[in-house]
Design goal:
This protein is α+β, with helices and mostly antiparallel strands and about 190 residues long. Helices cover about 20% and strands about 30% of the residues.
């Protein structure tokens, strides 16, 4: 009898932690079930690196810690562990079992053709359930479009789309503006947006 594929077994959170410790494959955890994550294309990787660098340069002196795509986020009330492309904690980071970040302040997803619906629907709902989250940003990998979801002072989510390389996005909770040109640095072959 062959070994059970990880996707066909229901896991406890502790079993999931043991699986990912030694796995060369990155998995997300969804209420006992796991799903393998696909590799990313060059534009996706460049955009993730650009966003990580921009946040580090602007906010590290303010005590914020920026994490790459290998940092999982604990969506406790949904029993999920997911891996955003970039996350940041501006309070003392709190980890579930020393692995999964409980209190991200900001999350960035780089949306590709295969992930954009998931990033804009299910993941959006998961992330909005996090009390610590103040900004959720979706960066398009195939055109210069960034959508910022920001929590305002009334705890309401406000959404703003920014398009074109001459624009800037505002992270209202961090008193920071980022140039679209800097986000999309070293990305070629994007369609022009007027």
């Amino acid at each position: 009898m062959g070994e059970t594929k990880p996707e066909n077994k229901k896991y406890t959170p502790e079993e999931f932690d043991n699986l990912i410790k030694d796995s060369a494959i990155k998995y997300e955890y969804h209420n006992g079930h796991i799903r393998a994550m696909a590799g990313a294309r060059p534009n996706h990787n460049i955009l993730s690196a650009n966003c990580t660098t921009l946040l580090n340069n602007a906010l590290s002196e303010k005590g914020c810690i920026v994490f790459s795509s290998d940092q999982s986020i604990n969506i406790a009330d949904q029993s999920r562990y997911v891996y955003p492309d970039v996350s940041m904690a501006c309070e003392e980071p709190d980890f579930e079992r020393n692995l999964h970040l409980n209190n991200p302040s900001l999350i960035i997803e780089v949306a590709s053709e295969s992930t954009k619906e998931y990033d804009r629907s299910d993941k959006l709902a998961f992330y909005f359930s996090l009390p610590s989250l103040k900004e959720y940003i979706i960066v398009s990998s195939d055109k210069a479009v960034v959508v910022c979801h920001s929590k305002n002072s009334n705890n309401e989510w406000v959404t703003k789309a920014t398009m074109g390389m001459k624009s800037t996005i505002s992270l209202i909770n961090f008193d920071m503006e980022i140039s679209m040109k800097d986000i999309y640095k070293n990305i070629s072959n994007l369609p022009k947006i007027i």
